[in-house]
Amino acid sequence: MANPGQIKTYDASGAIPAYSVVKFTATDFQVTLGAAVGDKLCGITTEVAAVDGERCDVIHDGIAYASCGGTVAAGDPLTVNATGQVVTAAPAAGTNNNCIGRARQSGVSGDVIEVIVDFFVYQG
Q1: Which of the residues in the chain have pLDDT under 50?
Q2: Cβ(94)–Cβ(124) under 8 Å?
Q3: Which residues make beta-bridge pairs with 59?
Q4: Radius of gyration (Cα) for the chain, nearest Å?
Q5: Amino acid 111: pLDDT
Q6: I need a surface site. Which of 93, 104, 109, 121 has the fewest CB within 10 A?
Q7: Looking at residue 3, what is its pLDDT?
Q8: Is the separation of the CB atoms in 92 and 54 below 8 Å?
Q9: Do residues 31 and 16 lie in contact, with contact meaning Cβ atoms separated by under 8 Å?
Q10: What CATH number is given for 3-62 in this structure?
Q11: Residue ranges of domains in the chain
Q12: Rounded Cα distance, 50 and 39, in Å
């Protein structure tokens, strides 16, 4: 069961599906899909999708639901794929992955799982 902590509202830059990982843009109070392991991730969207220019609710801490982009196991550190979905962080030696949190349950591509939102950098 999701137990979100702080939820804030932002303007969406581009279409943002429900349960997606987002990052800030250069415009204050605006978010867009996270799309790379080096992105400065800021949270996970709620169950409501947003189109470009609409308001978008983002969960910054607590337990959130997120869409899986691959197979993850409970406890895995999670980062983002090119479509804003969570995937297991697996940085190469000497490289970093910005992480959105840890999987609270296992899942496969297309599943919506619980994520403990906790921002950190995972170094390979």
Answers
A1: none
A2: yes
A3: 7, 44
A4: 13
A5: 98
A6: 93
A7: 82
A8: no
A9: yes
A10: 2.40.300.10
A11: 3-62, 64-123
A12: 20
CA atoms within a 13 Å half-sphere pointing along the CA-CB vector of 60: 9
Burial class (CB in 10 A: 0-12, 13-18, 19+), 23: buried
Return d(Cα 108, Cα 78) in angstroms, integer: 13
What token pair was written down for 101?
């949190």
Token readout for 6 is: 């702080």
As a whole number of angstroms, the distance between CA 46 and CA 20 comes to 8
Per-residue pLDDT, 10: 98
Q: What does the H/E/C string look like for the chain?
A: CCEECCEEEEEECCCECCCCEEEECCCCCEEEECCCCCCCEEEEECCCCECCCCEEEEECCEEEEEEECCCECCCCEEEECCCCCEEECCCCCCCEEEEEEEECCCECCCCEEEEEEEEEEEEC
